Amino acid sequence: MNFIQNPGSLIDLSSIHRDSKRMKQIPAHIGLVVVEDSISCKDIAKVIVWSIGIGIPCVTLFDQKGWLKEMRHKINQEVTNYYNLLLSKEKTKMVLSCRNGIALANISIPGYSKPIRLNFLSNSDGRQDIVTAAQKLCSDSNFYHATVTDQEIDRVTSTLHATHGFPDPELVIKFGDIDSMLGFLPWQIRLTEITSLLSHWNLPYSLFLNVIRDYSNCQQRFGK
Amino acid sequence: MALTTRSDRGNQESNSAWFPERKDPGFIQKFCCKVIKAGEIPKHVAFIMDGNRRYALKMNYSRIIGHSMGFDKLAETLEWCLDLGIKEVTVYAFSIENFKRSKKEVEDLMKLAKGKFDRLLLERDKIDKHGICIRIFGDISLLPPDVQVAVANTVKISRHNNRAFLNVCLAYTARNEMTNAMKELAIGVENQMLRPSDICEDLLEKCMYTGEATQPDLIIRTSGEVRLSDFLLWQSAYSCLTFLDVYWPEFTIWNFLWCIIRFQLSYQKIKDGKQYNNQMKEHLQHVSDKENALKEACMAGEVNTNMDDIIKRYRQEREKRVNKFINYLHNKRLEFVNALSNLD
């Protein structure tokens, strides 16, 4: 029996879609960084489904020790369950594919948003991925001859494996009371807005929505 | 705060010292610092000193006055750091992206920077008294020639100090820094000083502009923005990140102590996180050494030698190669600064 009505149970995809329409900007890529000691697949799945509903096409999940990676099948199952709960009439089409240890789930929801891509990352996808890129580029004599230009910096970006084909995350929601990113995508978070929430356990939709709304209202000057 | 007209502030613009006469901090501040010092104090704090222009707008000053007041706040913050026993401070003074600002503002900022570095030479005795070593991180060749000389002189005269470190990021972005480090490694590989498989986290770190610095324990960004903006992206991976909703010229000791408390609260868990990364790092190195050692032994036709001995020998040779390369890079950078400096 629930003493506290989780507001998440009152929402549906139409209301999320309406909330999305009111936003000035939606991130193209969101990072969910979990620095807590335990993970609730159900609650993570909810945040993923809310991200789908609000129109974020790319979601990266991270925890240092790779627990999310290990539980990705369970998480995908919970995503399907929760999504079906919210929208029983429409069908979800889910294709799970694994690419070199990074699991991708391609979920397309006809009529609501673009297909979403899920990325599961851990410690080895941070600094170590940059090291691997360095090893590749250092054997390339063209790289040696070039000066450090924007093009060369872009080359490094495209050589990184963890986020190949993804844009940089524009927003990160960090779950937990540790004030550190614990090695999450150091290269890619150059301009990322970082928001912290105490926990993903029993996270209400309203808190998630506030984060997206704050992001939607922020402006960057890009050094100028 | 005393009322001053815009013209009054204008006269104060370029004369303020790095080590001004100290006001007594007062009993309460001294007491609070003592309490904070009972817990862990970060050894290295990095500041993104953001909000000078918005502060100037709020107070109806010109932008360059905002930047000048930002400098005064930096000088005050350095005092607090010395009081608290913080040995290393890094500041984000000028990003490569800032070159995109208006020509006038960039010129004014370069003039301010040159003035401050020239001023440092005059306060040399105080730098030596506190034992401060000043280092510059960034692509110095992007700065105007006169600023390059001023910066090189500062680095040269404080090089021998080692009690405290002030690192100034000038013409800096983290991606530029990491790409530059990779280029240095590419030169090493091209000249056969290094093998690609020698490249690891520790070596890549040593090749960055921050190679001789420690990693920041605490990063403080003012003005309410909650991003790193291409500042120490690699080095901050395991730092405590704090974001404050005050403009830099308004930063107070109480804001600072609050950030240090946040650091203390996250300290143990961050330490555990760093330790985990170190374990993973060591494991990967061991696997790589084993693989490469065996490859080498096979190619040399060594069949009867003990495997542990082969791996140990390979590791020693790798470390020798790497240390030689790091020394070469250190000397290259030393010579660059010496060539720029116009002091004896």
From TrEMBL, chain A:
<dbReference type="GO" id="GO:1904423">
    <property type="term" value="C:dehydrodolichyl diphosphate synthase complex"/>
</dbReference>
<dbReference type="InterPro" id="IPR001441">
    <property type="entry name" value="UPP_synth-like"/>
</dbReference>
<keyword id="KW-1133">Transmembrane helix</keyword>
<dbReference type="GO" id="GO:0045547">
    <property type="term" value="F:ditrans,polycis-polyprenyl diphosphate synthase [(2E,6E)-farnesyl diphosphate specific] activity"/>
</dbReference>
<dbReference type="InterPro" id="IPR036424">
    <property type="entry name" value="UPP_synth-like_sf"/>
</dbReference>
<protein>
    <recommendedName>
        <fullName>ditrans,polycis-polyprenyl diphosphate synthase [(2E,6E)-farnesyldiphosphate specific]</fullName>
        <ecNumber>2.5.1.87</ecNumber>
    </recommendedName>
</protein>
<keyword id="KW-0808">Transferase</keyword>
<comment type="similarity">
    <text>Belongs to the UPP synthase family.</text>
</comment>
<dbReference type="GO" id="GO:0005789">
    <property type="term" value="C:endoplasmic reticulum membrane"/>
</dbReference>
<keyword id="KW-0256">Endoplasmic reticulum</keyword>
<keyword id="KW-0460">Magnesium</keyword>
<dbReference type="InterPro" id="IPR038887">
    <property type="entry name" value="Nus1/NgBR"/>
</dbReference>
<comment type="pathway">
    <text>Protein modification; protein glycosylation.</text>
</comment>
<keyword id="KW-0472">Membrane</keyword>
<keyword id="KW-0812">Transmembrane</keyword>
<dbReference type="Pfam" id="PF01255">
    <property type="entry name" value="Prenyltransf"/>
</dbReference>
From TrEMBL, chain B:
<dbReference type="GO" id="GO:0016094">
    <property type="term" value="P:polyprenol biosynthetic process"/>
</dbReference>
<dbReference type="InterPro" id="IPR036424">
    <property type="entry name" value="UPP_synth-like_sf"/>
</dbReference>
<feature type="compositionally biased region" description="Basic and acidic residues">
    <location>
        <begin position="1"/>
        <end position="11"/>
    </location>
</feature>
<keyword id="KW-0472">Membrane</keyword>
<dbReference type="Pfam" id="PF01255">
    <property type="entry name" value="Prenyltransf"/>
</dbReference>
<keyword id="KW-0808">Transferase</keyword>
<comment type="function">
    <text>With NUS1, forms the dehydrodolichyl diphosphate synthase (DDS) complex, an essential component of the dolichol monophosphate (Dol-P) biosynthetic machinery. Adds multiple copies of isopentenyl pyrophosphate (IPP) to farnesyl pyrophosphate (FPP) to produce dehydrodolichyl diphosphate (Dedol-PP), a precursor of dolichol which is utilized as a sugar carrier in protein glycosylation in the endoplasmic reticulum (ER).</text>
</comment>
<dbReference type="GO" id="GO:0005783">
    <property type="term" value="C:endoplasmic reticulum"/>
</dbReference>
<comment type="similarity">
    <text>Belongs to the UPP synthase family.</text>
</comment>
<comment type="pathway">
    <text>Protein modification; protein glycosylation.</text>
</comment>
<dbReference type="GO" id="GO:1904423">
    <property type="term" value="C:dehydrodolichyl diphosphate synthase complex"/>
</dbReference>
<dbReference type="GO" id="GO:0045547">
    <property type="term" value="F:ditrans,polycis-polyprenyl diphosphate synthase [(2E,6E)-farnesyl diphosphate specific] activity"/>
</dbReference>
<keyword id="KW-0256">Endoplasmic reticulum</keyword>
<dbReference type="InterPro" id="IPR018520">
    <property type="entry name" value="UPP_synth-like_CS"/>
</dbReference>
<protein>
    <recommendedName>
        <fullName>Alkyl transferase</fullName>
        <ecNumber>2.5.1.-</ecNumber>
    </recommendedName>
</protein>
<comment type="subunit">
    <text>Forms an active dehydrodolichyl diphosphate synthase complex with NUS1.</text>
</comment>
<feature type="region of interest" description="Disordered">
    <location>
        <begin position="1"/>
        <end position="21"/>
    </location>
</feature>
<dbReference type="GO" id="GO:0005789">
    <property type="term" value="C:endoplasmic reticulum membrane"/>
</dbReference>
<keyword id="KW-0460">Magnesium</keyword>
<dbReference type="InterPro" id="IPR001441">
    <property type="entry name" value="UPP_synth-like"/>
</dbReference>
